[in-house]
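Worked Example 4.2. Consider the chain below.
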Amino acid sequence: MLITPIPAPGKGEPSVAVRIMGWLTVLFLMSVPRLILVGMWIFGGLVGKAIDSTALRVLGFLLLPTTTLTYAIMWSVNSEPVAGAQWIVVGIAFIVDIGIWASVKLLSR
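Applying the procedure from the previous section yields the following structure tokens:
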């Protein structure tokens, strides 16, 4: 059986299959850091040690989960405030979060 791709509609718009795959990818990218954060809160308490404010933890979970997760991991490297090159890694995670939100905006058109 031959599988043929779904032709894209006119004007260069992506096909339905491409849009579905895009949404599934975004859903995956948005859910995995949150699942890891929940596991870290339940089994280790690492996020609570790294971020003192409950409001910041909740906002990080909702808005910037990859950045929050990366900050907690970088904090756990030496159990001190994040410093030096660790901020570069946190900055890259922030860019990833912004990219995920931008892809949501792009796919919702």
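DSSP finds five helices and no strands in the chain. The two ends are 34 Å apart (CA to CA). Compare this with Example 4.1 before moving on.
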